[in-house]
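Here is the promised in-class demo. Please do not try to memorize the tokens; focus on the logic of going from shape to residues.
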């Protein structure tokens, strides 16, 4: 490789580092939560027409079923309250201190502390959807009183 090609390659790499947002593996991201927690550990029970409390955690429905939606078991709480993990019923359920029902996932081991912290951070940072924005459907559903 010639010296000018090396300089162009390095310049391109440097530009890429400044242009692209950093995507760290430990950052809370809804797609990561979906792929590593909801799909393998939750969607087996929480999907389809008979999902408990209409909480569907399959890829197509999970975000809309969670963010800004009232909890069926504790209607005073939202399933996920953006910016406030302590006021989010999902956190109550996965940490095992919900006033109603059992710790989730109900079958199998509790979520790891790392998985719980990942969900808490995602909620604390605004519970953004995969595309980085709050989903308007969830806000509309919450105001309409759906659960």
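The designed amino acids, position by position:
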């Amino acid at each position: 490789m010639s010296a000018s090609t090396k300089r162009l390659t390095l310049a391109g790499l440097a530009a890429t580092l400044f242009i692209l947002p950093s995507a760290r593996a430990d950052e809370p991201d809804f797609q990561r939560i979906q792929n590593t927690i909801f799909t393998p550990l939750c969607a087996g029970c929480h999907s389809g027409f008979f999902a408990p409390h209409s909480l569907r955690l399959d890829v197509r429905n999970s975000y809309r079923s969670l963010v800004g939606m009232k909890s069926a078991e504790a209607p005073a709480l939202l399933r996920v309250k953006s910016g406030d993990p302590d006021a989010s019923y999902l956190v109550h359920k996965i940490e095992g201190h919900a006033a109603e029902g059992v710790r989730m996932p109900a079958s199998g081991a509790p979520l790891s502390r790392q998985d719980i912290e990942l969900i808490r951070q995602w909620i604390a940072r605004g519970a953004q959807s995969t595309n980085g924005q709050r989903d308007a459907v969830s806000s509309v559903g919450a105001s309409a009183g759906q659960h």
